[in-house]
Structure formats: structure tokens, C-alpha cells
Amino acid sequence: MKDAFDKKQPDKRFPKFKKRGCGDNFRIPQPSQFKIEGNRIQLPKIGWLRFFKSQEY
């Protein structure tokens, strides 16, 4: 990041900003290892997390 604002640097590299919320998905290799209770999900190695259920299946 210092290179972007250094006047002596010939090749300026500016930081690439990313939108919030992009890339916030993940996969569980064995889907039979999770539990859902209301708006909470229990994931292996992580524990209980809250989530927003946008669609009913």
C-alpha cells in the first residue's frame, strides 16, 4: 500500500478494494454432520452460528 502513494516509485500499485459480503460462502465435505435449530446451525469444528434463512424449501 505504501507503493501507491510513494512519489519516487515508478510502478504504482493501488490497493484493490472488495465489496463486503462477496466470497462469504463455504462447503462442508460431509453434509450429514450439521444440525439446524430455528435460525441457528451447528457446524463441525466451528460450533453454533446464527444465520438468515432467505428461502423455505
What does this structure look like?
The protein has a domain at 29-57. The termini are far apart. With 57 residues, it is mainly β. Strand 2 (40-43) and strand 3 (47-50) form a beta hairpin. A 3-stranded antiparallel β-sheet has the order 1-2-3, with no helix packed on it. It has 1 helix and 3 strands. The chain has one helix at residues 2-5; strands spanning 35-37, 40-43, 47-50.
Biggest pleated-sheet summary: 3 strands, antiparallel
Overall 3D geometry?
elongated
Give the helix/strand class: mainly beta
Gyration radius (Cα, Å) is 20 Å
Strand percentage = 15-25%
* Major beta sheet, strand line-up: 1-2-3
Mean of the pLDDT scores? Answer: 77
Low-pLDDT stretches are: none
Number of helices: 1
The share of residues in helices is under 10%
What is the first-to-last residue Cα distance? 45 Å
Order of helices and strands: HEEE
Number of strands: 3
